[in-house]
What does this fold into?
Amino acid sequence: MATALISGEIFLRPGVNSAEQQTGPQEAVQLPRQSQNLVGVAVAILESVPYSALPEKVLFGALHHPALRLRKPILLQTERSAAGINVYWEEIQEFGTGETFSTALEDFGQTLAELYLHLDACESPLSPYLLTVRNKLADYIEVRPQ
Amino acid sequence: MESPPPSVLAILLCDQLIVDAQSQKKSLIGVFDKFHSPVFPALLSCSIYVKLTDAEGSYNFKIRIVSLKDESLLTELGMQGTVQTRSEPVEVAAHLMGIPIPEPGKYEIQVYADDVYLGRVTLIAVQFNPGSLSWPQH
It folds into this structure.
C-alpha cells in the first residue's frame, strides 16, 4: 500500500545553492558533465500517509476457546488509547485492551468466554442486568458440540 | 454475514507449501516466524497455511499484512472459498509473493473471513550481518 508521489520541486536549505547542497560548502568539486543534453527535472518525494489497518469498527470472530464457538460475529468499536488499543462491545458494555489491535481482540475474546461460562454456571438468581447480559451472550455464543 | 464465523485452529507461515496432487495432503516446508534479511526494505515470499473449523458456506477470505509499529496496512490479499460441512475442519493455503517489508520490526498476518477477524500470526523481521559465520536462527 506504500506509494510515493513524485512531483513538485527540489527543496533546499535557505541560502544554499544546489552545488553546496551536494558537495558541502567547503570544497565544491566540479564533476565532469555526464551528458550535454542533460535536462534537470525538479522533483520532491511526498511521504505517503500509511493506510491504517485499524478500523473504526470490526466484526469479531476470534473466540479461541475449546468448548465455545460463535453463532455470529460481534460488532466491536475500536479506539486508540495511551495504553494501546481498546475494543468495545456496546450492547453489553464489555471491552478488551492490548498493545495492538490483535492483542486487544484476544483480551476481549478471553473476557467474553470467561463471562459466558461464569454466568452460565451461576446457580444463584441473577440480577435483571446480568440476566440480560447472559441472554445476549447466548445469542452470540454456543457450546461446541462434542 | 450469513455463514457462521469459522474458528482458527492454526495459522502458519512457511517457505514452501506443497500439495500432493493425489491425496491433497499439504506438506509445509520451513515453518518460520522470523524473517531475516541483510537489507531493508525487503521483499518476502512465503506460503501461509490456515486451518479452520466451524466453517460452512461461502466465504471471502482476506489476508492482511500489518506493521505493528503503527498498525499500518502493507498488503491485502483476497480469495474465495466454499466449505461444505461445519463438522469437518478446512484448510486454506496461499502463496504470498513479494510482500514488502519496509524495515526490521514486528508484523502481523491477519486472517479475515467476510470481513470478520479470525486470528493472526506474528512475523518478526530481523536485519542480519551477511558476514557472520552462523546462520540466523528461525
